[in-house]
Write a structure and sequence with these properties.
219 residues; alpha/beta; Nucleotidyltransferase, domain 5
Length: 219
């Protein structure tokens, strides 16, 4: 990249990050400094846990390239994940709810549970909580539609939740390699559906999800 193009890129990225912290800035002006962004990963898959993360990024700290985890390449997402969890000024917490509990209480309630666990595991109590898409019952929070594309702290939470869940699914792949969990992470891809047809559901599949209701489980 030429110096001129690099300068233009840096300018555009700075403007983008300023826009991505506009929600936080409005809250900071009220004197509420510890803003926790919250998001989840894994509501849609047919197998494995749902994982949520809460993340507090202090005013004035920016992470170049940060965005909704779904819009990032695996390499960029992983790099941002490592930067976030290793930064001494970033405070984060993670909540995980298993496939068993998902089947018992349904995926929406399991998502709320994972989000509350993530918030309560923060080492610092947040002054304000903003959540991607949903409003968590039982605690004071503000939901932001498509918040992972509008807020740096929610985007950070989406990256942490996604990467943590991916790690868990890679671990499950080692136990049940025939399903390819390391590739699709439990989502209903053609590869996954073919494995289900051939092998039936594994012990970590969500039996409350169609098409898994009445299929015999493998051991």
């Amino acid at each position: 990249m030429s110096p001129q193009n690099a300068s233009k890129h840096n300018f555009c990225e700075k403007k983008r990050l300023q826009k991505l912290t506009a929600i936080e800035k409005n809250i900071w002006r009220l004197g509420l400094k510890r803003i926790a962004g919250v998001d989840e990963a894994g509501r849609g898959p047919l197998a494995g846990p749902v994982v949520a993360a809460a993340c507090i990024i202090p005013e004035g700290l920016f992470f170049e390239g940060i965005n909704d985890s779904k819009l990032l390449s695996i390499k960029v997402r992983r790099s941002l994940f490592e930067s976030l969890i290793s930064h001494k000024e970033v405070v984060y917490g993670v909540g995980e709810v298993s496939h068993t509990v998902i089947d018992e209480i349904n995926i929406l309630q399991a998502t709320f549970l994972a989000m509350r666990e993530a918030i309560f595991s923060l080492k610092e109590k947040p002054d304000y909580i903003i959540v991607d898409g949903v409003k968590i019952p039982g605690i004071v929070n503000q939901n932001i539609i498509k918040g992972d594309q509008k807020s740096q702290s929610i985007a950070a939470a989406s990256i942490i939740a996604k990467c943590r869940r991916d790690e868990l699914m890679v671990g499950w792949h080692e136990k049940y390699p025939e399903y390819g969990f390391d590739q699709h992470k439990g989502y209903g891809t053609p590869q996954h559906m073919a494995a289900l047809k051939k092998h039936g559901p594994s012990p970590i599949h969500r039996r409350s999800f169609a098409p898994l209701h009445s299929t015999p489980e493998v051991r």
